[in-house]
Design a protein that fits this description.
The complex is a heterodimer of chains A (236) and B (694).
Chain A: H1 3-9, H2 12-18, E1 28-34, H3 39-52, E2 57-61, H4 66-83, H5 89-96, E3 100-105, H6 112-125, E4 132-136, H7 145-158, E5 161-168, E6 191-199, E7 204-211, E8 222-225, E9 230-233
Helix pairs in contact in A: 3-4
Chain B: E1 8-15, H1 21-31, H2 55-60, E2 68-73, E3 76-82, H3 90-99, E4 102-108, H4 115-126, E5 131-136, H5 145-154, E6 160-162, E7 164-167, E8 175-178, E9 183-188, E10 194-198, H6 202-219, H7 224-231, H8 237-249, E11 254-258, H9 267-277, E12 286-290, E13 296-300, E14 309-318, E15 321-330, E16 333-334, E17 338-341, E18 347-349, E19 353-357, E20 360-364, E21 366-367, E22 372-376, E23 385-387, E24 393-395, E25 405-411, H10 414-430, E26 435-438, E27 445-449, H11 452-466, E28 470-472, E29 476-477, E30 480-483, E31 487-495, E32 502-512, E33 518-522, H12 534-545, E34 558-566, H13 574-589, E35 594-608, H14 612-621, E36 625-632, E37 635-643, H15 650-657, E38 663-673, H16 676-693
Helix pairs in contact in B: 10-11, 12-13
The chains are: A alpha/beta (236), B alpha+beta (694).
């Protein structure tokens, strides 16, 4: 399969059509689930899809180190290349590497000003201007809405869309009246898209809880395949 | 002189340049009575530290070659293998690591964990070498052993724990408190020879108690007895030692010791720790490959009565001939023994057997398993395995990276020419990443290696040790050629010019192949090319791949399939099919969109965060791809991939743009297609060179 066809057939297109064409510049979206369910896998798959379309991706991590993430990206790509029988996958992969930058913050107490400063340095001293940012391991548990508001403002200024991953720490799932779990619900108004990953018997369901301000969203026919850790169509 | 195995230690001292490794080694030799006076690495007396036996190393204050030396400490026999600390000498470092059972990781209490330490540490983890850490230079301005211990945890992912607490730091560094015995130790007398045990000074007692608790919290995870005693508040040193040892051997704990080798503080206690916590040869598992049984892995056991297996890990040219350092893995090595070199099957007889102490040697008659000794007059290469005739084992072959940089060297006169070939011959034997050949076109001698510094050091050694006067050419990147798309060929070679004619026809396809350099598939049906000529076709392809038409560099990643052809009962020959293969290759190659590949290096730069922008800029200007930036407090580590061709002189650029505060490491990563504009430039250069030769 050629690259263009792979992009066309990607389940990410289903996701996009389910959320009014995509997340959109200036907006924040979130994947939430318990630890080990597949948030990072989902982010990396969406990021890889973005990179395949020759759009630049910045992956900000507060948790995993870059080597670990690079490995994730590699595995996801190899799995995609295998599944779609991608032609000349080595050259495609080499080209992908130029589309991604990982920014890793080891210290949890880093301020948003420092993150902005880092972003400024990267975009100014290199020709790297991302269209989508993925944020992994952000400490939502202790965060206040004002902090996420800074990100929202930043997304609007920098004209980027930002996908977050948020861990549900508690064993018992606490859903509010809109079926949105804590701690994500604390920032409800700031999210444009909320997707919760819910483990079912043999797959992980994509549960769309908010899709821009369109009232109760329709069911997303998507899942995460635990065998490949890729997003896939869910025809059930 | 076979030693008690339990009382034997084979250790390496591994560290970043300038963290004081050589000084520490020197002090260890001094305190174990191996040398009688202390020399500094950059000593004014011009003698230099004992382990740095090469003049060049003395001048630069670094250690390049590993030498092994044997010392005695508290009835234990310790072999110290001095390992180089620079990443350009990777093969030598890794081969040394192979023969170690444990290591001291030396860190500077001011500089802490730096990117070089990360590389060496990664290699140690790969070879499963248990280690203890020594935070050196506690007498220096800005010394902070606690910070270094934290860095060990954060940057190297060690479960590091302070076993000692400093009595004063910087110019007030007097000694250390042992947190196990809860005693203070001072190093007094001439050169700190006398270790005086005393009570902990009142002012430090509280602090020491806190640190002891932290230590016990960590260490008690490795022993239920200790955990119980800790909870019941009846901990004794005898309960702590085995727990620390257990954690260290499992690579799950890194005990940290302190001192200042230069000021003779803490070295004796470090030696106690080596004996106490690092493994004996019996506690380490080593395996070999059984060459008679399909390279099946076999476990080696460090006992005397098993067949002998030993590894040559280091060669040295002395005035008495070649000295081969070996590690004995099992069995007993005696003078007069007959051994077989498993690389080439040659028999050798052990003549002189010696134990080394830096530049001095002691003759011995035998040595047992686990020991490190040296043999004289054995012709072999570094990395060879020797065994007794009854087993056919080879120690696992080590991964040898391909050289990525080359330059031409021209001796100034005949005497230099002779010495140069002697030197190159020796360096190639010692270091498989250093290679040499003569360019058939220019007749220049070309040397190849892993980086600029790697080749620089060998050129310097030729000048100093072999008195070679030479002129060097500019460094050359090892480009490669390959193809982007498949194609088919059908080529007939026919020649009728009197005498016997030549006839051969080959047909098939050429495809890119990423898994290997060259793959040959014989798909001939019905004998249209007779079996005897199939290897000739392959040979023809191989000759064609030696020199690509675009740049003259080798062609790689090609799969050739032959599926048709024809022969003539009289006019076909080996030569005819070789020529047909060669010509067919050249013809189809140009139809398959040939491209030029260049080596891409994985570059890691570490610096204070304020220079992040400047460093990103330097990488960007060099066609680099930035993979990641990790910010850790005030430090940033940038990982990137940069074409080797753009990395010449990078250290100077980096130094000037960061006031010398950044450091970088570089390793070969992969080959990648060069951009069009550069490809055109390279083709033009090659064409001009060809024109000149004509």
């Amino acid at each position: 399969m050629q690259k263009a066809e792979l992009i066309k057939k990607s389940p990410i297109r289903v996701l996009e059509s389910g959320i009014n064409g995509g997340l959109g510049k200036g907006n924040l979206g979130v994947f939430t689930a318990r630890k080990g369910v597949g948030k990072t896998a989902s982010l990396v798959h969406i990021a890889t899809d973005t990179m395949l379309q020759e759009r630049k991706v910045l992956h900000i991590s507060f948790a995993d180190d870059p080597q670990h993430l690079e490995n994730w990206y590699k595995q996801v790509f190899l799995e995609l290349a295998k599944q779609y029988k991608l032609i000349d996958s080595k050259s495609v992969y080499d080209a992908l590497l130029t589309q991604r930058l990982i920014l890793h913050f080891k210290k949890k107490d880093i301020t948003f000003t420092q993150i902005r400063e880092n972003y400024k340095q990267i975009t100014q001293s290199t020709s790297f201007t991302p269209q989508t940012i993925f944020v992994d391991g952000f400490p939502f548990e202790n965060a206040e809405p004002a902090q996420l508001q800074e990100w929202k403002q930043f997304a609007a200024e920098a004209q980027v869309e930002i996908w977050f991953s948020a861990t549900l720490h508690r064993e018992d799932l606490q859903l509010d009246e809109k079926d949105v779990p804590a701690p994500v619900n604390k920032f409800y108004e700031l999210w444009s898209v909320i997707i919760m990953l819910s483990p079912k018997e043999d797959f992980i369901d994509f549960n769309l809880l908010k899709a821009h301000n369109t009232g109760k969203p329709e069911r997303l026919r998507l899942k995460l395949d635990p065998q490949t850790m890729l997003i896939a169509n869910n025809r059930v | 002189m076979i030693k008690d195995l339990e009382k034997m230690r084979n250790i390496g001292i591994s560290a970043h340049i300038d963290s004081g490794k050589t000084t520490l080694t020197e002090r260890i030799l001094f305190f174990t009575n191996k040398i009688h006076a202390i020399h500094e690495v950059r000593g004014k007396d011009g003698v230099g530290a004992t382990m740095d036996s090469m003049e060049l190393e003395r001048e630069r204050g670094i250690t390049i070659s590993s030498a092994s030396t044997n010392v005695e400490w508290k009835k234990h026999s310790i072999n110290i293998i001095d390992t180089p600390g620079h990443v350009d000498f990777t093969v030598e470092v890794e081969r040394s690591l192979r023969v170690l059972d444990g290591a001291i990781l030396v860190l500077c209490s001011v500089g802490g964990v730096q990117s070089q330490s990360i590389t060496v540490d990664r290699q140690m983890t790969r070879y499963k070498v248990p280690r203890i850490a020594f935070v050196n230079k506690c007498d220096r301005m800005g010394a902070d052993p606690e910070k270094v211990t934290r860095q060990l945890r954060d940057k190297l992912n060690h479960n590091a724990v302070l076993m000692q607490y400093p009595i004063g730091l910087e110019d007030k560094h007097e000694g250390v408190i042992d947190l196990i015995r809860m005693k203070a130790y001072y190093f007094e007398g001439h050169d700190g020879m006398t270790v005086r045990e005393a009570e902990i000074p009142e002012s430090l007692l509280e602090k020491a108690k806190v640190k002891r608790d932290i230590m016990l919290d960590t260490v008690s995870m490795f022993s239920d007895d200790l955990m119980e005693a800790y909870l019941e508040d009846r901990v004794t040193p005898e309960l702590i030692y085995p727990a620390v040892r257990k954690g260290t051997l499992a690579l799950e704990l890194t005990p940290v010791f302190l001192g200042s080798a230069f000021k003779n503080k803490g070295v004796q206690l470090l030696l106690d720790a080596v004996v106490q916590y690092l493994p004996s040869p019996t506690e380490v598992t080593n395996s070999a490959l059984d060459l008679s049984n399909n390279e099946e892995q076999v476990q080696l056991t460090a006992t005397v009565d098993l067949p002998l297996v030993l590894l040559a890990f280091k060669l040295d040219d002395t005035r008495f001939g070649q000295l081969t350092y070996v590690r004995i893995y099992q069995g007993c090595l005696k003078k007069g023994d007959e051994l077989i070199n498993r690389r080439n099957g040659r028999k050798v007889r052990v003549g002189r057997l010696i134990r080394m102490h830096a530049d001095e040697m002691e003759d011995i008659t035998d040595a047992g398993p686990g020991d490190i000794v040296a043999m004289f007059g054995i012709d072999c290469a570094s990395g060879d395995t020797f065994t007794s005739p009854d087993v056919n084992y080879s120690m696992t072959s080590m991964y040898v990276p391909t050289p990525v940089i080359s330059l031409s060297i021209v001796p100034k006169d005949n005497k230099s020419l002779e010495n140069m070939s002697k030197a190159i011959n020796r360096f190639c034997k010692e270091d498989p990443t250093f290679q040499s050949f003569v360019d058939p076109e220019t007749n220049d001698t070309i040397i190849r290696g892993m980086g600029e510094l790697h080749l620089d050091v060998y050129i310097e050694r030729m000048r100093r040790e072999y008195n070679v006067e030479l002129v060097t050419g500019p460094p050359q990147v090892a480009y490669r050629e390959s193809i982007m798309q498949p194609g088919t060929f059908n080529y007939t070679h026919r020649k009728q010019t009197g005498g016997a004619g030549q006839y051969a026809r080959v047909a098939g396809s050429m495809e890119p192949c990423h898994e290997s350099t060259f793959e040959f598939v014989d798909d001939i049906k019905g004998g249209v090319i007779p079996n005897e000529y199939i290897p000739s076709c392959k040979k023809g392809f191989e000759i064609a791949m030696e020199k690509g038409p675009l740049t003259g560099f080798p062609i790689v990643n090609i799969k050739m399939t032959i599926n048709d052809g024809a022969y003539h009962p009289v006019d076909s020959s080996d030569m005819a099919f070789q020529t047909a293969g060669l010509s067919a290759f050249r013809e189809v190659y140009l139809k398959c969109k040939p491209m030029i590949l260049e080596p891409i290096m994985r570059v890691g730069v570490e610096s204070p965060s304020e220079y992040q922008g400047a460093i990103l800029g330097t990488i960007n200007q060099r066609r680099g791809i930035i993979h990641s930036a990790t910010e850790d407090g005030s430090f940033t580590v940038i990982e990137a991939e940069v074409p080797l061709a753009e990395m010449f002189g990078y250290s100077t650029v980096l130094r000037s743009s960061t006031q010398g505060k950044a450091e970088f490491t570089m390793e070969f990563s992969r080959y990648s297609k060069v951009p069009e504009s550069l490809a055109e430039e390279l083709k033009k250069q090659f064409a001009e060179k060809q024109k000149k030769l004509r």
